[in-house]
Amino acid sequence: MEAIRRIVQEIVFMCRVRNVQVSDTLAAFIARAVVLENTAQFPLDKELNESDVQELIRMSTERLVEQDSPSLETVKMQVAFDTARMVESEKLQRARQAREAREAQYVREVIETRLKPGNDVESLTALYRKIFNFLVVRADLELGADRPAEREIAAALESVFPRIGLKAFTALPQEDKSAQLNELANIVLGIRLFNRHIGKGGAGMVDLPRKAAELASSLITQMDQEVNEIDTLAQQYVDVIAYKYANNGPTPTRLQAELTNRRQYGAFLSRLDAGFKQAGSHVEELTRMLLAEIDSLKTLVGNRSSVPKEQVYPRFDSLAKLWGSFREEVALLEARQVTLDTLRSFREPYVPTLRADDLVASRAARRNEEAIAGMPVSLMPATDPQKAAKMLEDGSAGVENSSANIAVALSAEDVAASAHMSLELESFCPYTLVQRDGLLLPASIEFVAMYKERLYGFIDKAALEAFVAEPAKYVAAVLSAVKRMPELIYMLRLQEYFPAASIAEIMRQYSQGVVGVGGQTLLQAPRSFQDSCVQTPTHFVEKNIDQSYEWNEWALRRRALHLTNLRQKVTKSQQTNASAFRREEETQVYLPKTTATMTGISTGTAAPISRNYIAGLRGAPDEKMSVVNLTIDPEVTIGKYR
């Protein structure tokens, strides 16, 4: 929406006129925070008229030009930190893309080279030179700038890829050429790394493992020291604020704003510290793997003059990949160091009002209380019940407790079982945030409650019991308090309740040049998009099928008899898995019988031999002739019958 763009530009211009430089993101966030605080003056459900726009510009400008304001400095720090992280990511991505584009140019020159028919020595020499140039660029060197390093690369190239293999290389497809070039570059780099480690080369190579380890160690040491200092300072603020509350003095708004600023600064330091420690452990692991590969190569090569390439080339390739990981870690640490420098500019953005005499008095009072009680006292003095009830009602107007809004206090075992879940509000106590006008005190893991599948921590048992009694009101009161202190939206991770006041969303909109859409109000949540599809049939066919229809009259008769029988039943029962006295049924089956299969009997292949003999051809005249049949078994030798 052009109105939003104009409002932001007017705010930036008015601040520049008053010698205050602000970014578009900061101006947009403050404008939305002003609207959030004054919803009665700037309704969220309608467009702003011209007078409302001018009033919004004036109020936002006055907020941005405030001097010595911890609340404003906290918002500035949040915007600056997120901007620095975005710039850090973009810088790393641009550097990676620039390096890949430069290498791709030389790769393209190599794979697009065409040889002339015959023995084209000139073209082969030019191709070999292009491959050499690619290897030099891949090693992060300028052509002709480091002669010793180029001689090392040339020697490694000649040993891995002699000129005699150029013709076979030119016959490969482009994809295979590109893959072989990358593999060749890794092997050449691995050879140089191995030679450097044994003291026979490594010209022009920066000791990336040592550089990464030293940089990570230095940053971790600095972070640990600064985090400890901020934690000590925050505890001093808490002691003084508790002392002032114990004396029933006015609400120390300024001290609480300074405490919020220091806690946000400490949270950013802790986030960077965790990143540095993760990078340090990764560098240690990479160093261990690099030394292991080099030791295995030493064992493999030894004093031999030649080694099978199938054994050494994969290890050289692994060395090169590990070296690339070291290079990425160094680039990441250097980029995050720039982010740390940006954050350090907010180390002392205002004049602190924490006085030494208040600190001494608060510590003396705490020692006296502990001596009287004989045990450590609560971090914050108890709140007056009437005042606490009034604060809660003012912050949760219109919210009523119901049976659905039930919070459950968790035991130590339940808390241990829910260790995978983090505490809401960045582990700060919601009770003190409501009852102490936005005071941020870290919760204790001993006092945890679950409300709507979310965990909330508290500083003591009294705060836990008060929240469990009226959880819905306390959550609403927290959101109401955050509206008055917009710097807490980012710090407590409440962007889901105030999506339009999300710094990340504002930065995304302004980085893309999208500030709004026609008809969008200043605090309307950004539109979300998702992929979807709709399929429409070509021909609609209505299906009028009655699944309960039955045409068979006998089936209808059986159904009628069944219903009649049911109506005559007196006792009805229903059995479920959870029912008591469930009926047990057994089913008996006949096991399959054991059967056998008989095979055929082996017989001979010769058929029975049948012989017919005529008897009575000789002898007396009255003797009659007869035919005698003789059938011989084939197993009996028949030679004697023939």
From TrEMBL:
Location of this chain's protein in the cell = Cytoplasm, Cytoskeleton, Cilium axoneme
Keywords associated with the record: Cell projection, Cilium, Cilium biogenesis/degradation, Cytoplasm, Cytoskeleton
User: Which Pfam families does the record cross-reference, listed alphabetically?
Assistant: FAP206 (PF12018)
Q: Does the keyword Repressor apply?
A: no
Tell me which InterPro entries the record gives.
Answer: FAP206
Query: Could you give one GO CC term from the UniProt record?
Result: ciliary basal body
Biological processes annotated in GO: cell projection organization; regulation of cilium beat frequency
Q: Which superkingdom heads the taxonomic lineage of this protein's source?
A: Eukaryota
PANTHER family per the UniProt record, alphabetical: CILIA- AND FLAGELLA-ASSOCIATED PROTEIN 206
The Swiss-Prot or TrEMBL record describes its family as follows: Belongs to the CFAP206 family.
Official protein name in the record:
Cilia- and flagella-associated protein 206
